[in-house]
């Protein structure tokens, strides 16, 4: 197996590992950089100190970087709403148009002119547009892959279903139609489209014409997330983890604080909800502070102590796609999980054996109450879930799978066909 020259296009350098996407990207690239020459081309991290730490981490991992001095615009403030309004005139979804910068496209074009790239890898679907802008007609003759952390259209469809404001629902429908067009182009034109679950791969084939799909699941560092049996759990403490700057997680956190926790505390007054995540918006901080039994911990350096102390992880997602790394981390640490159906989708885990899964808010409340009152039975599910995670979801196994996709695409694009 020869060394490949892999060029990865991404939003930023995924470090520190404070979100599911960052965790996945870094863990896979770190392992594959021991076999191939990997270069990441991306925008600058918004936090300057974070940028320096990220460049050090990538240098230590043996991964080359080309970072353009432009950060992706923030999703707050008057400028954000002005950009949303301006996007009405664009054929591209907002998430694509704000990430497809001329600066990054020029860097990709220059890199292509100076290097013999075996595979171009778009680490998030919107970055297929950067590659299209940079290479133009040449894109038809080069091997390239696109990593769909989520099928974005599915997320936007769920936004439509949960939006309670008519004007907001109208705008979201516009974004949904744009994403459907864009994903149809990206998935059907890539040499190989990579999904994180079998469900997403099926959706990409049936709805978006992706005839060359592969699945590389989300994973977990099973050596880092290990059971800490010397720490006593609080059966009545539910833990919510996730990037709190991601709208589906914000919606889930709001549901937890407004709907689930008050109803649970009406039956179990000492029940608590601990929220752990990066970059929470101010409104969520205020809501958590005002909600009895809730506490919020922002940007923590290590989530393992929270996993060890809680009674169980709660995943009250209503909106989402792909699969949840936080569920894999919890089960790897032998922390029980109570989730909605949306939260648990995309993972090869069996409800009532490896975790508990609810189909409605009412059912989630009832399962939460059962979890608090039957901690021993709940812990049994976590032990079974850990065995399943060890067998299927370690990063070592998944790096092998991604390596096989890259090798097939580089050797002969036809070999990537499903």
UniProtKB/TrEMBL annotation:
Give the GO terms filed under biological process for this record. lipopolysaccharide biosynthetic process
What keywords is this UniProt entry annotated with? Transferase
Boundaries of every Glycosyltransferase subfamily 4-like N-terminal domain copy = 25-223
- A GO molecular function held by the record: glycosyltransferase activity
**Protein's name in the database:** Glycosyltransferase subfamily 4-like N-terminal domain-containing protein
Organism, by scientific name, is Gemmata massiliana
The taxonomy runs: Bacteria, Pseudomonadati, Planctomycetota, Planctomycetia, Gemmatales
């Amino acid at each position: 197996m020869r060394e490949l020259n892999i060029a990865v296009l991404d939003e930023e350098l995924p470090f520190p590992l404070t979100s599911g996407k960052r965790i996945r990207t870094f863990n896979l690239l770190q392992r594959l950089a021991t076999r191939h020459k990997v270069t990441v081309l991306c925008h600058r991290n918004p936090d300057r100190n974070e940028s320096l730490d990220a460049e050090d981490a990538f240098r230590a991992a043996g991964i080359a970087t080309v970072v353009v001095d432009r950060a992706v615009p923030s999703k707050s403030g008057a400028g954000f709403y002005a950009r949303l309004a301006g996007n009405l005139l664009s054929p591209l979804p907002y998430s694509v148009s704000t990430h497809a910068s001329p600066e990054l496209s020029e860097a990709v074009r220059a890199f292509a002119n100076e290097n013999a790239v075996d595979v171009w890898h778009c680490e998030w679907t919107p970055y297929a547009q950067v590659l299209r802008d940079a290479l133009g007609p040449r894109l038809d003759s080069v091997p390239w892959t696109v990593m769909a952390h989520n099928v974005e259209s599915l997320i936007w469809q769920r936004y439509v279903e949960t939006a309670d404001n008519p004007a907001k629902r109208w705008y979201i429908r516009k974004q949904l139609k744009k994403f459907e067009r864009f994903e149809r182009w990206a998935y059907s034109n890539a040499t190989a489209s990579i999904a994180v679950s079998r469900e997403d791969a099926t959706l990409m084939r049936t709805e978006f014409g992706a005839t060359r799909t592969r699945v590389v699941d989300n994973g977990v560092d099973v050596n880092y997330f290990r059971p800490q049996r010397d720490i006593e759990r609080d059966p009545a403490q539910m833990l919510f983890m996730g990037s709190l700057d991601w709208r589906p997680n914000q919606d889930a956190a709001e549901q937890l604080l407004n709907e689930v926790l008050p109803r649970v505390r009406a039956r179990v007054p000492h029940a608590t909800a601990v929220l752990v995540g990066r970059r929470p918006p101010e409104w969520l901080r205020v809501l958590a502070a005002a909600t009895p039994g809730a506490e919020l911990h922002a940007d923590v350096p290590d989530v393992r102590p929270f996993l060890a102390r809680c009674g169980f992880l709660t995943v009250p997602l209503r909106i989402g796609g792909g699969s949840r790394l936080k569920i894999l981390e919890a089960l790897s640490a032998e922390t029980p999980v109570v989730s909605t159906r949306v939260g648990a989708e995309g993972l090869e885990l069996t409800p009532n054996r490896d975790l508990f899964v609810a189909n409605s808010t009412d059912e989630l409340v009832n399962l939460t109450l059962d979890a608090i009152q039957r901690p021993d039975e709940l812990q049994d599910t976590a032990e079974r879930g850990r065995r399943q995670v060890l067998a299927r979801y370690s990063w070592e196994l998944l790096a092998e799978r991604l390596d096989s996709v890259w090798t097939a695409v580089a050797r002969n694009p036809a070999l990537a066909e499903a």
